[in-house]
């Protein structure tokens, strides 16, 4: 992760293309019935859709990739729909619209957040690895200290139906340490102001926790413990980046608003 983030723009792209592709592959696998026809083909198509927005970010568009006045916008909007319709026609599925829903969820849940991460990293028209590392660091702090606080003093279940081991004490501990670390980071990394870092910490604490719960709900609904086994000790890509994926869009929106307000 450290080498990918600080190795430059291309190492960033390669790292997060790998993460996005791995996460999309696992998500399609979780959402699909294991006896579905052409399951490998469906996972492959879902993976391509998962990395598609980040790949599109490589296209030089004068900084208006997602703008309505961009000539590429109709293509960006219609291309996945055409691919999904053709896929289900060719693969002759018995549940075509369920499969299309799975693909669209993969595109929205995995694909677009990583494209927005690239937009954050290249906000000043050049790649800044510290912005990406700062987000990862706060997310890791929230996860780590929520776990540690819950392990030592956690007693009150948070959402036992979804995540039996998560407690209110652990959640609050994660939030407090995330804010504390955001203040420390604001005196160390100058890419954002202190109010911006504290705003990011708020989003990490809320939506990072939400992302973790959403993936736990998904795994519980299909009866699996981990989304995959490619990362020893962590499970799969989704297990490791579930909270990070969900918080990225909200960080992106908050930074746009703060920049607009000159905060």
Provide the fold topology.
Blueprint: H1 2-6, H2 9-31, H3 39-56, H4 73-91, H5 96-121, H6 129-153, E1 157-159, E2 163-167, H7 168-186, H8 194-222, H9 237-260
Antiparallel strand pairs: 1-2
| Terminal Cα span | 30 Å
Question: Taking all residues together, what is the mean pLDDT?
Answer: 87
Q: Note the run of SSEs as H and E.
A: HHHHHHEEHHH
| H/I helix tally | 9
The global form is globular
Order of strands in the sheet with most strands: 1-2
Radius of gyration: 19 Å
Q: Estimate nothing, just give the exact number of structural domains.
A: 2
Structural class by secondary-structure content: mainly alpha
Strand content: under 5%
* Major sheet summary line: 2 strands, antiparallel
Number of strands: 2
Q: In percent, how helical is the residue content? A: over 70%
Low-pLDDT runs of 5+ residues are 60-65
What this model shows, in words?
The chain is mainly alpha-helical and 263 residues long. The chain is built from nine helices and two strands; from the N terminus they run ααααααββααα. β1 and β2 (163-167) form a beta hairpin. α6 crosses α8 (194-222). The longest helix is centred in the C-terminal third of the chain and has 29 residues, at 194-222.
